[in-house]
């Protein structure tokens, strides 16, 4: 493989980019060289932080810049299809924020375009890349708990009450917790189950008329080889499952129990949708709010894997193994830059032409399950899956 850093161009300098920015800055295998964003303020901030970089407000212009090996698509969900099709046709590799798209037909067209262009697409960042998840996968592969029988994943957060743009509260435009958060849980469970899902039976909750989208869901997934998984998520800002994760937040940072209710209190002081969108902008690139340093691994709430001769419990620090006669802790040391496993996949895809596990086809399958959660809740019956 080439020792030259991979040149990365970014489309979209919003919150998604901010959460991955540190990983891209700290890993010497990659280098931020260009960005595309509609706001001049964001473009100027990018050029100031990365001397010698180029910026534009056109995806086509970004793809034409020299030195761009891969384009990171960090735009709102509903724009992914348009941007991925253009970038794939330019011959650039892709890193695409989850979900791959919000429409299954769009996702299938994206998969076909990537395959026709002969480029690699990595869907991420996703919590499936988290080191404890990767460790759990290795333990399962080693037969530590025997065959996987059942998986339980649960996460309660304040997601729905963080500052949002209007489209983030509109399911038709990719808003709500199923697309933004469900994709994480589905990714984790599919990795740990080790097989293709066959059906989904789900319920969703829309419990706040002022936030008119799905704020909660509970889903049961069946897999081809007999594994079942239950996924539960609530973003209604009451009970916080980080209490069960040693008060480590989703991004691996320490979290104070004294901050309970903060999201709702801040939102209550926001006057209207425009003011809320402006508050959201403070959390994007060039804004005033940046993530605190991580002291543990990122996570997505409690996950339990039940096997034929033992269970696994994932934590921000590693994995607890519960056998027939003893329990032990398998640590996952926090070493190297954050989100290193994501960069591993990017480097292997670009320099080694190694198809990532979280490929376009994987993104299609994850999206199909997210869509099935919504459809099953609407129909009141299980939904069969086709693209797993």
Shape: globular
Poorly predicted spans: none
The major sheet is characterized as: 9 strands, mixed
Question: Could you tell me the radius of gyration in angstroms?
Answer: 20 Å
Lateral strand order in the biggest sheet = 14-13-12-11-7-10-9-8-15
What level of helicity do the residues show?
A: 25-40%
**String of helices and strands:** EHEHEHEHEHEHEHEEEHHEEEEHHE
Distance between the termini: 32 Å
Question: What would you say this structure looks like, in words?
Answer:
By secondary structure, the protein is α/β, with parallel strands linked by helices. Helix content is 33%, strand content 21%. It is built from eleven helices and 15 strands. The chain has helices spanning 15-26, 40-49, 59-64, 80-89, 104-117, 131-141, 177-193, 262-268, 273-281, 340-352, 360-379; strands spanning 6-11, 30-36, 54-56, 70-73, 93-96, 121-123, 148-156, 197-205, 216-223, 228-234, 303-307, 311-315, 318-322, 327-331, 383-384. The strands form two sheets. It has a nine-stranded mixed beta sheet. Helix 4 packs parallel to helix 5 and helix 5 packs antiparallel against helix 11. The model has no long low-confidence stretch (mean pLDDT 96).
């Amino acid at each position: 493989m080439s020792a030259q850093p991979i040149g990365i161009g970014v489309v979209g300098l919003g919150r998604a980019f901010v959460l991955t920015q540190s990983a891209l800055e700290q890993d010497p295998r990659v280098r931020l060289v260009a960005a595309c964003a509609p706001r001049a303020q964001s473009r100027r901030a990018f050029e100031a932080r990365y001397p010698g970089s180029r910026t534009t407000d056109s995806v086509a212009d970004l793809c034409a810049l020299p030195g761009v090996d891969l384009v990171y698509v960090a735009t709102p969900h509903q724009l992914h299809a348009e941007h991925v099709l253009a970038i794939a046709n330019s011959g650039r590799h892709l890193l695409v924020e989850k979900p791959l798209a919000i429409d299954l037909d769009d996702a299938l067209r994206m998969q076909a375009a990537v395959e026709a262009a002969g480029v690699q697409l990595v869907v991420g960042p996703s919590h499936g890349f988290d080191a404890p998840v990767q460790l759990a996968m290795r333990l399962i592969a080693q037969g530590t708990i025997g065959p996987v029988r059942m998986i339980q994943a649960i996460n309660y957060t304040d997601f729905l009450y963080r500052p949002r743009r209007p489209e983030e509260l509109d399911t038709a435009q990719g808003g709500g917790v199923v697309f933004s958060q469900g994709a994480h849980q589905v990714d984790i469970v599919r990795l740990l189950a080790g097989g293709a899902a066959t059906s989904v039976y789900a319920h969703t909750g829309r419990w706040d008329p002022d936030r008119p989208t799905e704020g909660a869901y509970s889903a049961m997934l069946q897999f081809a080889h007999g594994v079942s998984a239950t996924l539960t998520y609530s973003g209604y800002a009451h009970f916080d499952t980080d209490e069960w994760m040693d008060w480590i937040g989703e991004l691996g940072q320490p979290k104070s129990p004294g901050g309970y209710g903060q999201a709702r209190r801040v939102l209550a002081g926001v006057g209207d949708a425009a003011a809320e969108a402006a508050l959201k902008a403070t959390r994007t690139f060039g804004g005033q709010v940046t993530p605190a340093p991580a002291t543990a691994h990122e996570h997505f709430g409690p996950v339990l894997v039940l096997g034929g001769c033992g269970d696994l419990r994932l934590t921000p620090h590693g994995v607890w193994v519960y056998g027939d006669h003893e329990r032990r802790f398998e640590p996952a040391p926090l070493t190297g830059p954050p989100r290193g496993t994501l960069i591993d996949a990017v480097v292997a895809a670009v320099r080694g032409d190694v198809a990532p596990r979280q490929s376009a086809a994987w993104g299609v399958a994850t999206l199909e399950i997210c869509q099935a959660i919504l459809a099953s809740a609407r129909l009141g019956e299980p939904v069969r899956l086709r693209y797993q």
